[in-house]
Write a structure and sequence with these properties.
With about 300 residues, this protein is mainly alpha-helical. The protein has 16 helices and 9 strands. The N terminus and C terminus are likely disordered.
């Protein structure tokens, strides 16, 4: 066990002091009122730190007795407020990380909910897209929350604890047994998010040709090029971080080399995806060309103005 770990720059958000030790002693000095105003700390504001399991965590966590559950379902990202759940990003992130945890350190006396407010996760679409990709890729932070003493201690996760958290699901080799990731709502969010991106490397000629198409089949290959361009645009500030995490073995062993593959999986790799998205991309292309033909418009306006038309 690690005691009195110095606070890592990624650990603290909200009212905790970056210079203070993130140890059990810190939380003992908090009053019930201030304690519940501290959000669950997280990795770069994207992925909340997990509850550290005990060495007695069951190998086959199944609740046969609902009145005496072996494990409980912990939404690592929980968003308060009806207005938040009306957003595509809120709906997607809430179900992106549901961990199986031991009840006594989840919602029991002295558990996580005694000490922390839930983490709302990132509140902007760019952050939510990163969080969804990381969850889909099986990312776990190196830091966790140890609640077994009755007071939380934020510390590095040990190898044996990682083995429990990252136990491969025998029914799905691409997932962990103790972390459920529901990707069904990802599609609607990615549809919305990608259309907000500026074209990155697409040529004016390709955009112009796609804006003028009349038959879907005649431009399907071109449409796929533009879709890939929007995905590349969405990932332009995140690809290197993803690659570093994968090379550092911080992701699921079966996580794809290119994070774009995770977006494609969520969008649905079929003709229905193309028909659903190409109409919207065409409207974006028309807006782009219209503004491009106006000498008074800057490239930034060309990139961003069509978003409203394509939403």
């Amino acid at each position: 066990m690690y005691k009195g770990i110095e606070a890592h720059p990624d650990i603290i958000r909200g009212e905790l002091d970056l210079s203070a030790p993130a140890s059990a002693d810190f939380f003992k000095n908090q009053t019930p009122k201030t304690r519940r105003h501290i959000e669950v700390p997280s990795y770069r504001g994207l992925i909340p730190y997990p509850i550290i399991p005990s060495e007695n965590f069951p190998d086959n966590p199944v609740n046969e007795d609902i009145f005496n559950p072996v494990v409980s379902r912990h939404h690592e990202i929980f968003l308060y407020g009806r207005q938040v759940f009306n957003s595509l990003g809120g709906l997607a992130t809430r179900v992106s990380r549901v961990a199986l945890t031991e009840p006594q350190v989840h919602n029991g006396r002295g558990g996580l909910h005694t000490h922390f407010e839930m983490s709302p996760g990132p509140r902007d679409d760019a952050g939510r897209a990163k969080a969804l990709i990381l969850s889909d890729a099986g990312f776990y932070p190196d830091i966790g929350i140890d609640l077994w003493s009755g007071s939380p201690e934020i510390r590095p996760i040990e190898d044996g604890e990682f083995e429990i958290l990252r136990r491969i699901d025998p029914a799905n080799q691409n997932r962990y047994q103790n972390l459920h990731v529901d990707t069904a709502p990802f599609r609607a969010f990615y549809d919305h998010f990608l259309l907000k991106q500026p074209f990155l490397n697409a040529s004016y000629g390709d955009i112009e040709r796609f804006a003028a198409y009349e038959k879907f089949k005649s431009v399907r290959e071109l449409g796929q090029i533009l879709l890939q361009d929007l995905i590349d645009s969405a990932l332009r500030d995140f690809r290197s971080e993803y690659e570093d995490l994968r090379e550092g073995e911080k992701l699921h062993p079966n996580a794809p080399i290119d994070p774009a593959e995770l977006i494609y999986r969520a969008l649905g790799d079929d003709e229905l995806r193309d028909r659903r998205l190409f109409y919207k991309i065409r409207r974006k292309a028309i807006g782009y060309i219209t503004l491009a033909d106006s000498p008074a418009k800057s490239k930034l306006e060309m990139d961003m103005a069509p978003v409203a038309q394509a939403a």
